[in-house]
Amino acid sequence: xxxxxxxxxxxxxxxxxxxxxxxxxxxxxxxxxxxxxxxxxxxxxxxxxxxxxxxxxxxxxxxxxxxxxxxxxxxxxxxxxxxxxxxxxxxxxxxxxxxxxxxxxxxxxxxxxxxxxxxxxxxxxxxxxxxxxxxxxxxxxxxxxxxxxxxxxxxxxxxxxxxxxxxxxxxxxxxxxxxxxxxxxxxxxxxxxxxxxxxxxxxxxxxxxxxxxxxxxxxxxxxxxxxxxxxxxxxxxxxxxxxxxxxxxxxxxxxxxxxxxxxxxxxxxxxxxxxxxxxxxxxxxxxxxxxxxxxxxxxxxxxxxxxxxxxxxxxxxxxxxxxxxxxxxxxxxxxxxxxxxxxxxxxxxxxxxxxxxxxxxxxxxxxxxxxxxxxxxxxxxxxxxxxxxxxxxxxxxxxxxxxxxxxxxxxxxxxxxxxxxxxxxxxxxxxxxxxxxxxxxxxxxxxxxxxxxxxxxxxxxxxxxxxxxxxx
Length: 472
Ligand SMILES: *Cc1c(COP(=O)(O)O)cnc(C)c1O
Prior knowledge:
Aspartate Aminotransferase, domain 2; three-stranded antiparallel sheet; 12 strands; binds pyridoxal-5'-phosphate
C-alpha cells in the first residue's frame, strides 16, 4: 500500500514546522524547534531565583487558533508569555505547597513520553512501558517491605490512587453493592477520601473521622472502640485509612497498632502515604513508618517530594490481583494480554500516559544517594526551621515526623489568626518567601513545606526573623 505523502509546507524548513515529525528522516525544523523550546525552559529555570515564587497576573497570549497556523517564532513567544505567569516551584522561597522543583531527568522523560505517545491502556500500545510500570511498582513495593508478589499501578494523582484503593477494598469486603459501608480515618486525613465516597455513591457520613492526639496522629484506642461499636451494630467496614503524612503538619498515624487492629477485625488497611511513603526509600526508614509494610494498599505520590514532574502517583497493593477483580471489564477491541495484563484492566483510568517513565528515570538519575539526600535534606530543613521558630515562645508549632511545619501565635481567636496569617503571608511574599495559610483546628496557620532543595539555611533564618518581628 502506498503511503500518503508526508505533510509538506513550502518555504524554508527552518522557519516552517510540519505538524507531525517526518517518519522518513530526521527533520531539522523539528530539531531546531525542540532546541529552542528547551532553551526557553532552561532560561526560565535558570532565572527562578529572581522575582517571587508567585508572579502577579501576567499578560496572556491569544486563546484561539488563527486561520493559518503560527510560525515556530510565534509559538515560542506565546509559550514564553504563559511561562512568565507560571508558579515557580524552583524559587528557593517556594515553601507553600507539596510541589517541589522538577527533577531534570523527569523533564527529558516527559519529552520522550510525549514523543512516544504510548498508551498504558493496553500492552500492544505500550509494550516496553507497561513492563516498566509493572516492574517499578513491584520494586517499590519491595522497598517498602510489602510481601513478595506485591505491586501496583500508576494513577494521575493521589486522589485517584485513594479512590481506587477504596473501590478495591469495598470489592474485597463484598460490599460493592451495599450502601451501608463506612470508611474510618483521622480528623486530619485528606479530603480526597470524601471525594472518593462521593464517586462511590456513599454519603459523607460514611467517612468516620476519629480525633487526633496532640501530635496530629490517630489514636488507636479510639479506633478500637469505634471498630467494636461498629461490629456491635453490625455496620460493615470498607476500610481503615491511616495517613502517613498529614497535609497540614506531616503527622504519621501509628501504623503498627492500626495494622494490628485491622488484622484483628479483618478490615482492609489503606495507608494514604501520598506525602510520607517515599520516606520508606531512605537508607534508614523513619521509625514512624514502622508497619507500613503491613498495609493492604498504599498511595505513594513521588510528585510531592521527589520532584517527579506532575503527575506521579502510585497505588501499591500487597495483592495486586485485586485490581483486576475490581476493574477488569475485558477489552474486546484489544489483542489478549501476552501475560502481564492490560493497564486499562487494572485501574480506573483507561487511556493514560506512561507517567512511570519520569519516575523510573528520575530515580535512576538520583541514585540511592540522591534519594537519601533529598529526603534527609527536607527533614533537616524542617528541623532547622523548627529550631529557629521555637525560640519564640508566643508561637505554637505543629509538626510531625516529616518535612512539614505549621505554626500560629498562641491564644488567637479565629478572626485574629486569620488576620495575622494574611498579614504575615503578604509580608513574607514581599521578601520572596511563599508559605500557605491552612485552616487547622479552627485557626489559620502558616505552613512551610521544606521539600525544596534550593532553600538554604539563610532563607529559613530570614523567615524566622520576619515572623518574630510581626507579632499581633
Ligand atoms: C496531596 C494528597 C492527596 C491527593 O493527591 P493529589 O495528587 O493531589 O490528587 C491525598 N492524600 C494526601 C495525604 C495528600 O497530601
